[in-house]
Specification:
Mean pLDDT: 77
Largest sheet: 4 strands, antiparallel
Structural class: alpha+beta
Low-confidence stretches: none
Length: 147
């Protein structure tokens, strides 16, 4: 039975395989030229790729100058724009002391009246008694929170 099965699978002796065509030219495939590649349209991005492309990058935080001396010689208006309204204001003649209180530090800004208005002549930054971070870092955080 096995012999009959194998015999049935074979080709009939009268059939012969086709003869190779000796006259057929050889086919060669050349790579596309760069100019043809440039004209080819870009593939359509997948929905996942389009979604990734539409997500804006995270903003990079700018470093904050935590030196309180940067306030020296600024006008009162500029200080108010940088730090907002003072927690406490004291006036003595032509001088004003603006106090800014944060959880970890206290900043005193001493302003004096001149021909153009109030300008900063002195600053005093100190940690509060319960402060756990350095005063300059507290000042930097105070500036960053106002931007």
């Amino acid at each position: 039975m096995l012999a009959l099965s194998l015999a049935a699978c074979g080709t009939a002796p009268s059939e012969s395989p086709p003869a190779p065509n000796a006259a057929a030219p050889a086919i060669t495939v050349a790579p596309l030229s760069p100019s043809l590649d440039a004209r080819r349209p870009n593939p359509v991005p997948s929905p996942a790729t389009r979604q990734q492309a539409s997500v804006p990058p995270e903003p990079v935080a700018e470093p904050v100058n935590d030196d309180p001396r940067q306030l020296l010689r600024l006008s009162g208006k500029t200080v108010a724009a940088l730090l907002g309204p003072a927690s406490y204001v004291r006036r003595d003649g032509t001088a004003e002391i603006w106090q800014y209180r944060a959880a970890q530090c206290v900043l005193d800004v001493f302003l004096f009246q001149d021909s153009s208005g109030l300008s900063v002549a002195h600053v005093d930054l100190r940690e509060r008694a319960d402060g756990t971070i350095p005063a300059r870092r507290c000042f930097g955080d105070l500036l960053a929170s106002r931007k």
